[in-house]
Amino acid sequence: MPLDLNPLSADCFDDWRDATRARLVSLRQESGMHVGGDAVSDVDAVLDDLLPAGHETQTSLILTIDDAGTRVGTVWLAANNGMLIIVDLAFVIEPSQRQLDDLLDELRSLARRQQVGRLSIALHSSDTAGRAFVEGRGFEVASIRMLLEPLPPREPRASGGLVVMPMTPEHFTSFAATSEAAFADDLVASGRYSAEDAAVESHRQMELELPDGIDSEGQELFTAHVDGAEVGVLWIGIRRRGGRQHVFILDIEIAGDQRRKGYGRDLMLAAEHEAARVGADSMGLHVFGFNTSAITLYESLGYHRIEERFLLAV
Q1: In sequence order, what are the residues at sequence separation of 6 or more whose Cβ sits closer than 8 angstroms to the Cβ of residue 208?
Q2: CA 301, 239, 29: angle at the middle one, nearest 5?
Q3: Do β-strands 83-91 and 118-124 pair in parallel, antiparallel, or remain unpaired?
Q4: Nearest to 268 by CA among 280, 255, 285, 256
Q5: d(Cα 137, Cα 89) in Å, to the nearest integer?
Q6: DSSP conformation class of 161
Q7: For residues 233 and 252, is the Cβ–Cβ distance under 8 A?
Q8: What is the DSSP letter of 213?
Q9: Distance (Å, rounded) from C-alpha 5 to C-alpha 72?
Q10: Closest CA to 268 of 287, 289, 288, 253
Q11: What digits encode the pLDDT tens for the residues 176-204?
């Protein structure tokens, strides 16, 4: 007998919101995505943004998951960019494999009725129930958030000859255009955006991070050189994590004709050195799932996955 997915009743919304808030805060803290009160602030911002009208918000759909009269859990959905996004999936009992299979079938049917072609779900590393849902069901990793904490006591490699220096204003103009276009291409390649939407999203993020160009507060940009020749670029954002300095790598790139020479590892070590220089003791980054060589490099340096976004064509 298939599962029943039904809209959450208005009289249950407040209890659901409280339980969801507590669960999402816990997942962020357990995975290392956020520290302490940062997790609370982040979750509250998400809830306020996605549920501005509470139960009556038209852009969200909250469904109960029932099996022959037994409550299995709830699923919170939103649609965007041709995707049905699973914002949160929570179980009140441990679901069987049959129940997980039936849930996926129901969500696929719902996506087709809404004329969207993909399912999307972001899962923290600590969300074992969510991972049981995606594993073995055709989902692919679209993107990964990674964290290195604490920064290890290691110095940039002198043997490779790679040095970094602040990017010049003259170089910044061409860098910004190239970086924005490359990020848009990566968004398309990840399967998360159409070409048109990717261009808009990439430009939005560039404007958000660099409102004042190379002079934007909290942003540091570098070029990497070996024997006087430029081989890559590095862009880091200085942020806060648990009340302490934190660095996020916004862009790191080795020129195409300079790859497979160890410069990527050298530039990552140089990034750690710059992070320590500004007083940070942790670093984060985002990598697309198709970039397997970069993922291998980051994990070899001690970065661990704190959140992964999965996609499935329906």
Answers
A1: none
A2: 70
A3: parallel
A4: 285
A5: 16
A6: -
A7: yes
A8: G
A9: 10
A10: 253
A11: 999 999 999 999 998 888 999 999 999 99
CA distance 7 to 228: 63
Tokens 């048109």 belong to which residue? 196
165 strand-pairing partners? 223
Burial of 293 (0-12, 13-18, 19+ CB in 10 A): exposed
How far is the CA of 232 from the CAs of 174, 209, 212, 297, in angstroms?
A: 13, 20, 23, 16
pLDDT digits (tens, 9 = 90+) for 142-168: 999 999 999 998 877 655 789 999 999
- Determine the Cα–Cα distance for residues 192 and 198; give it in Å rounded to an integer: 8
pTM across the whole model? 0.94
Express each pLDDT in 32-41 by its tens digit. 999 999 999 9
Token pair of 224 as six digits:
């990497």
Q: Whose CA is closest to 234, among 188, 277, 296, 191?
A: 277
